[in-house]
Task: inverse folding
């Protein structure tokens, strides 16, 4: 039996005296990320291609998956891509990224030695702060990145990164410099490089945090 066309249905409801008809929005056809289901980072990146899971998909230029050593012992997690990251599809390539590179090199490492990514994989418009629904949509993919890289230490950069990874609403001022733990991994929250560009006097605080990270990684 054929389905009546939409026009006939609307006329039918009109004749019944129905003034308004509410239609459910189509659900995303994107499959959910299942914890532990990805064999490696390239498979996860492939799974994310064309992601429509939150509203940022409508305004982004590129998904910024992250890059570096896929088996790094040190992982840096920022908050969200900025304009240059969105354009290039790479994490931390703007001015803040340049400062992060200097921090990594001061620790005796290269960017290629560590894994660098963000909580959000798409840029929020005008670099606004991440919103709760966006973080919720992206967290399964960050969780998979953490599982697949299996770092010994995660350094969270900024308030939203620390809060997302640690599952807390504590501000970064209270969290930074104190060892935490998440997903069986040691976590060191610290300030975001973009904040340091605005407040260079706080660079010494970040360096104290990184010295703790270096000391831990140097131990067995």
Result:
């Amino acid at each position: 039996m054929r389905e009546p066309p939409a026009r006939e249905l609307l006329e039918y409801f009109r004749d019944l005296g129905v003034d308004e008809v509410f239609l459910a929005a189509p659900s995303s056809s994107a499959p959910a990320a299942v914890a532990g289901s990805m064999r490696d980072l390239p498979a996860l990146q492939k799974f994310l291609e064309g992601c429509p899971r939150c509203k940022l998909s409508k305004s982004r230029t590129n998904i910024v998956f992250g890059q570096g050593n896929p088996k790094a012992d040190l992982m840096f997690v920022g908050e969200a891509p900025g304009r240059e990251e969105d354009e290039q599809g790479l994490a931390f390539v703007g001015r803040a990224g340049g400062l992060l590179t200097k921090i990594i090199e001061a620790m005796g490492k290269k960017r290629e030695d560590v894994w660098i990514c963000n909580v959000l994989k798409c840029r929020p418009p005008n670099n606004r702060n991440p919103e709760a629904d966006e973080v919720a949509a992206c967290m399964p993919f960050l969780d998979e990145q953490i599982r697949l890289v299996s770092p010994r230490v995660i350094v969270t950069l900024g308030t939203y990164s620390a809060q997302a990874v640690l599952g807390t609403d504590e501000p970064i001022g209270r969290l930074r410099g104190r060892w935490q733990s998440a997903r069986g991994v040691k976590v060191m929250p610290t300030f975001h490089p973009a904040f340091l560009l605005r407040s260079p006097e706080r660079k010494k605080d970040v360096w104290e945090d990184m010295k703790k990270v270096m000391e831990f990684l140097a131990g067995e």
Q: What stands out?
A: The chain has a mean pLDDT of 90. The chain has nine helices and six strands. The chain has one domain: 54-218. The domain at 54-218 is CATH 3.40.470.10 (Uracil-DNA Glycosylase, subunit E).
